Amino acid sequence: MDLYKYEHLGFFNAYGLLDGELVYKSNPKIIKSWKYIEGTPIRQILYVDKKVAEQLDFM
User: How far is CA 4 from the centre of its chain?
Assistant: First the structure.
């Protein structure tokens, strides 16, 4: 909670003390997203721990 408060004080002040609010810390290793670039479906993969990004055509 201290890190959240330090990094996002405005959000903490607005929402941090509301009943039912939870804060989770995570360290993702892989993040996958889908996008359309000029009508073509693209899958983007970020390997966070390796600091590598990959972009694949879906078709």
Answer: 15
